[in-house]
């Protein structure tokens, strides 16, 4: 018999060789089994015990010596059927556990931080909002600079039209020096409300947030942006934003 067929049935290489040896030998002590199968003498009892647990080997004691014998080959089918039942039961239990495991995975999710360089990197991080936000959900920006380059202004002007079609909402707090026409342009799109910061402060960075994500940008000549995925950190930044938002005024 091909040992490979027995291995496909779930037996190890050593178990297959010992079982085949016993089929040919009949009832036998360990010496002839080791010689016939070619397995190490140090593991013969271990292999015989595993085969016995699978119902493929039994033994009797003659004159205080164990004699082992292979069960009839039909027992292999019985063994496979039993394994199939175990597998089906294990699969059922795993299916029941999956929702709990998924919830546990989310609650234990570690923080993630990614650094982006340049304008394209900033765009990449901002584009993540479309992957994570559903219609009706929002993101917020705070400290948006008043002297943004033309290509940055043009990108966000186009993006707000896209955001509007996606049904995503946003609230924006611009630097107090930002021209009114910029805020009015943003407010002309559905789901957006732009205001000036309620404090007279110039910051070297602006940040945005949504769900479990915070995105901080340092708009220099070669800008550096940092995206942090952490629920607690995102909650903290939103708290600061909400406080400034309450103190800000609507644009007329």
Describe the structure.
With 252 residues, the chain is of the alpha+beta class. The chain folds into 2 domains: 3-76, Arc Repressor Mutant, subunit A (Orthogonal Bundle); 112-247, Endonuclease, Chain A. Helix content is 51%, strand content 21%. The chain is built from 9 helices and 9 strands. It has helices spanning 3-8, 13-25, 30-37, 44-53, 74-107, 118-132, 150-166, 180-187, 231-247, and strands spanning 57-62, 65-70, 112-117, 138-144, 169-174, 192-196, 206-210, 213-218, 224-229. Strands 3-9-8-7-4-5-6 form a 7-stranded mixed sheet, with helices on both faces. Strands 1-2 form a two-stranded antiparallel ribbon. Strand 7 and strand 8 (213-218) form a beta hairpin. Helix 2 packs across helix 4 (44-53). The mean pLDDT is 86.
| Rough outline | rod-shaped
Overall pLDDT score? 86
Question: Cα-atom Rg, whole angstroms?
Answer: 35 Å
Q: Any idea how many domains?
A: 2
**How would you sum up the major sheet?**
7 strands, mixed
The assigned CATH architecture of the largest domain is: 2-Layer Sandwich
Indicate the CATH class of the largest domain: Alpha Beta
Strand order across the largest sheet: 3-9-8-7-4-5-6
Total number of helical segments?
Answer: 9
Helix content: 40-55%
The count of DSSP E runs of length 2 or more, i.e. the number of strands, is 9
Portion in beta strands: 15-25%
Low-confidence stretches: none
Sketch the topology as an H/E string, one letter per element: HHHHEEHEHEHEHEEEEH
CATH superfamily of the largest domain: Endonuclease Chain A
What distance lies between the first and last C-alpha atoms, to the nearest angstrom? 89 Å
